[in-house]
Amino acid sequence: MEMWLNFILLVGYWAAKVLVNGQLQSGWISIDCGIPENSSYTDDNTGIFYSSDSKFTETGLNMKISSIYMSSSLEQQFSNVRSFPQGSKNCYTFRPEQGRAYNYLIRASFMYGNYDSKNQVPEFDLYLGVNLWETVKLDNASHVQVKEILHVPLSDYIQVCLFNTNLGTPFISALELRPVNNTAYKPTSGSLVLYGRYDAGATTSQKIRQVNLDPNDIYDRIWTPFSLPYLESFQTSFTIDAQSSNHYKLPSKVISTAVRPKNGGGFLEFRLPLEDPNSQFYMYIHFAEVERLQGNQLRNFSIFLNGELWYEPEVPTYLSSNTIFSKAPVRGQEVRVAMNKTGKSTLPPMFNAFEIYLVKELLHSPTNNEDFDAVMNIKVTYGVKKNWQGDPCIPQNYTWDGLKCSYDGYNSPSIRLLDLSSSGLTGEIASFFANLTAIQHLDLSNNSLTGSIPDFLSQMPSLELLNLTGNRFTGSVPTALMERSKNGSLSLSLEDNPDLCMSDSCRPKKKNIVVPVVASVTSILVILLALLVLWSLKRKKQRAVKLLVEVNKSDGSLESSNQQFAYNGVVETPKNKQFTFSEIVSTTNNFETAIGKGGFGTVYHGFLNDGIQVAVKVLSPSSIQGYKEFRAEAQLLLRVHHKNLVSFIGYCDEGANKAIIYEYMANGNLQGHLSDKNLDELSWEKRLRVAVDAAQGLEYLHNGCKPPIIHRDVKTSNILLNETFQAKLADFGLSKDFPNEGQTHISTTVVGTPGYLDPEYYISNKLNEKSDVYSFGIVLLELITGRPAITKSSDERIHIVQWVSSMLATGEIRNIADQRLEADFNVNSVWKAIEVAMACLPATAIQRPTMSDVVMELKECLAMETAHKGASRVGEYQKTHSSMAIEVFDYGMEKYDIRKTSDQSTGIINLVANQVLFIKIHGKTRSNLSKGKSEFTQPIHIPIHLKENAQYSYIQSHSSSLMIYKPSKNSLKKMELYKKSQPLIHLNLMELQKKSIKQ
């Protein structure tokens, strides 16, 4: 009976202990980094419940330390690590249940343990939110380092990030958060990094962590034993009340021991050095009298901190704790504490414990709370797979992919641009977007979003651009949204939403009893027609070819499947995609017009029966490599569909006769336009649009395809231009699938074009999507400079990167930009484009941006240029109600820096697309003329409408009239002839001046 009673009491004890610990650990977050996903355990020594870190981070690898460093004394949390070999910034994100109402003790622990078998101890930076916490430096593989900070949160989220500083792969062993009542440890600003926490008079040499003892340390602090040769320790066996009467909630084991000077001396002092002489620190000293004093005994002393009187008099209370602390930070190169008993005291000074914290100023403000909450909810709602970790906007060089922020130096950064194009979004537009109150550009194009377009989009006050192209929206566009589009306050894109109605015509119509009858009759006719089609299909076996192309392992012939293919919004059956060789001959008019040639064969211009122009790529029978490319391209074209990739129309596969038919691109390839020195069609704005188009095509291949696709031959000759100069990527013969999204590269034979080849890929045979990024950087430099990737001279070959790098040293944009542009561009736009291009071209792939980053940056370049050009368009002039006319200024500088004027009375006007000439009549001000300049006297602005993309001549007669004549090859050479012809425009400036005065 007694045995059972003891058993019951034991069970009750442990149940009570578990209950206490469970209550104690409420709100604690304790993660063992690197243990298997969703696993957990209770630590035998501390009783702390640890769980996997998989719910708090999205990246990294679970690793075990080397068995050499395993031992029975090693804490379990150091047996594993989470390593972060990919990316420069990897973060843990927490949302504690207490929110901002509490401060938090955050503890990060590290032990390398040669987990990667490299035996190279790494060094990396540890960030708390957007601010550097500390640099992690370990002495050796067995060195344990623990970083601890008392954090005052500014938002409900807490983020701990590891930054790769190129000194080894970051890793972490354990991460712990403990809520701390904000009545304790109150810095005037910043957070508090632990310098040291000491238990004076400790009875053990081991660190003290009082979690599984009663009473517990509710803040889970780790205390280091402290003693000095001239101090002696003493203690009490009675319980000290350190919980109810003291905000600092000291553990009983710590507060029950103390130190005092040996031999009853009346003075004690200790010093601790600080590395930085400008350090600011907070001091906390804890006292509790552990001796029962007699009636004639008194312990009374003064406390000095760094030579100044800090507190007087201190009289410790028996078995009750109190804390003396700094109300403001103390500056110094050391911590020096002295205690001296007063004249009334009969006993020496003493103390029980002390803590020192260094001030960590939080220099950077995190992203605006509302914006951060909004994008976090967007991330969760759509399962966004971009590298969205840590703070969206800070540090500035680590902003989230597809996101741009506004920084004014005073307020928290806010999100002004969000690009989620080609991100695989599904479902409806979530209401969280409405919380992005400062957003200016929102791009949700090329996803699979459904439902109606919400009204709240029209009520977002700062929104200037909304791109919803290429989705599956239904219903009608909100009236308020259309109104904003019409009045020019919002640039709205809604193309490629086949079920979206943009007018009142989509309102429900009245019911009509005729409709069911007609529908029934139509259904019967459709069934009969279907039977007829099936009968016809049996008679045309050679045309019944399945759409999806696969390579037969035995003979490499094209096989098929039963899937369908959507082209221009119409679902076509497989037979409509198959061409016989005789149809190819007819389509190309017996191969009459060749428009291109390559290793595969020749490309011909052709017409389908319905008059649609097509390009027909015909395989040369002698080309073995071409046949492999033909098969690869056919396979790829059948599964990729994007506005910036050439559209697939069909193919032919009849024995040795093989061809691919795709849409005809009327303006040929980009290389032809850049290499023809006599061509003046590609303005800087057009070049940027081409760059954005091509970049979006690559972004789709990398992010919008499953598995991702690497083009491997990005170059100007593979970028085609249609009749509106929309750019589309072509020639996918060398493209390669990237089968495993977790892989960093695939090893493959090097292919591509000299001048465009990624140097890392060329050397290592390791291919990834950043190889395309490098090639695109070369294309971008060609667009900027007008030079080819490699320039050949009599004695050397100069690569474009080498040439641009040498020119950048001069800082002259006019020397780098294509001379055919005649400096007609926004200089900041060109500089930014050069920066984007050069960012694509580091020798190592990891340093290059993603194509999503490139697309976003190029869109900003384009926005700069269109804003610059828009200032000279009537529409923009009316929209902004500007009172200042456009003046000619040098090389697109945004300041109106007019060079010296000319007295010429004749000149040339060059107008580009949509440009309108403004004449400003004002004292010593010239008009928007590229050659001649005119001086006027009265302030008046005159828009003059002329046909674009043309050159006109003008004659100014003194200051009284201006005559503009139609284009002529004679130009100024025969200016006198113009005086005999009728001008297009004749302005009497004197009359205009009079009107101006009257007004």
Form type: elongated
The proportion of strand residues reads 25-35%
**Treating each run of at least 4 consecutive H or I residues as one helix, how many helices?**
18
The biggest beta sheet is recorded as: 12 strands, mixed
Overall pLDDT confidence:
78
Q: What's the architecture of the largest domain in CATH terms? A: Orthogonal Bundle
Give the CA-CA distance, first to last residue: 114 Å
- Secondary structural class: alpha+beta
CATH domain class of the largest domain = Mainly Alpha
Output the CATH topology of the largest domain: Transferase(Phosphotransferase), domain 1
Helix content: 10-25%
- Provide the number of structural domains: 6
Runs in which pLDDT lies below 50 for 5 or more consecutive residues are 1-23, 509-515, 537-576, 871-905, 911-916, 920-943, 968-981, 989-999
How many distinct beta strands?
Answer: 57
CATH superfamily of the largest domain: Transferase(Phosphotransferase) domain 1
Report Rg: 38 Å
